[in-house]
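Example A, followed by Example B.
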Amino acid sequence: MSPARDRELGDLNFVRLWVGETISELGSAIGGPAIRFAAVIVLSATPFEMGLLSATVVFSGLVMSLVAGVLTDRLERRPLIIVCDVGRAVILLSIPLAALGGALSMPQLYVVGLVVPALDVLFRVAYGAYLPSLVGKEAIVGANSRLTASAAVAEVVGFAAAGWLVQFLTAPLAVAIDAISFLGSALAIWGISKPELLPRATEPARLLDDIAAGARFITSDRRLLVLAASSAAQMFCDGMLGAVYLLFVMNTLGFAAGTLGMILAVGGIGSFFAALKAREVAERLGLTRSMVVTVTLAAAGLALIPMAQGSASYAIAMLVAHQLITDGAVTIFVVTSRSFVQSMTPNEVIGRVTAGLVCANQFAALIGSIVGGAIGAVLGLRAPLIFAAAGTLLAAVTLKAIPPLTESGP
């Protein structure tokens, strides 16, 4: 990275965004599993209810992704990011408050699963569109690498803490920590002083027309279209995995929350080192090849989950290996694909393009969650895990259809 790019990433405004995002990721690493722990441990959720909870989360993100891009391309992005942080804090606090009053229920978790993911999507779309104007497109890959690396550290700490917090403080109190973290993120981002490069909206907002413009940009470029198809396939598989993973590890393998939290934390270690190497891998292998290789590795890592059985030590080895391999591989894919999209997309449409890709991913994950829960209920919890690994391998093959132009960058 050039000295100029280093100076850009060392700017106090980027550091504030970096700190805010890291704090938010730390809280999410604690709160995300804690909500699912609350469903399984406190409310004794069934496989169908867990599948429905996962589907609710994804459905909300899908709906919001349709309008998040329009809002991001029409409004200032930093205030949107702050509103999302504060909003998530408020709704998450309802869980520990309800638990203290003995009123926590699955319907409430479904409501939280509608509101929080919607704000998550708006946050990520606005954040992704805001980053190029903050650091400049020349520093995008370096910025994404650093942000992803710190998110990986937050994942290690957060997931490790989540299991033990749930085990010793209960899941609702772990969610309260998540809520507080979002307030810390909002304060950090509030301190950014650099003027924002605003979208150049020249016509009145028309929701359907604006959404269609983003979709047309994606479909008109074969590189984005193929990337969208592969990402959607990966998210379908991720939806199947998310619907049954917790039940498989806790009910089938018999692990306690603390042990599971430590296993999940290992994935952050793989993500951290992968994020540091993402730029080097992309330069060495080429953009297309690096994505094909990393998604293939992710599929191999996923295949290890249904192999976990028998002795506790063997099962832990399989789950830990999955975390290291899959999380590391996916991290490099995310850094390179996200940087590619940000670099090639004009500022005035980047929000809608990002939201369009998110929408496709959320829809695929929604269907995957429903399918995963149904397959788990009928064929057993290992079946959707096997299908998820096979589907991810198919997503890697799909990436080979990206035109060679991407090898030299956008």
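Example B, a separate protein, is given below in the same form.
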Amino acid sequence: MNLWGWLLVACAAAYAIKLAGWRVPARWLESPRMTRVAGTLTIGLLASLTAMNAVADGAAVALDARLGALAVAALALLLRLPFLLVVVLGAAAAALLRWAGVG
């Protein structure tokens, strides 16, 4: 099968999964356990995306300025600084590390 065929299969599968979601009873979705599971999955997905973007360079691991910026942002979060300041400090750390030749 060519690329367009696989693309159509993927679209049909995504649509079928979305339609199946409408068949889930509302009481299942409103339970406290489902709320905890959904929250945990969201945190896990965000953490894995952050880790991959911080250290991945294609198929290789790259320890560069992104990792330093992540460390500075994590420290700023631990100090409970405002989120905008966390972002600015992370960006500034990345810029300074790249200026210093780290990556």
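On Example B: The longest strand covers residues 56-57.
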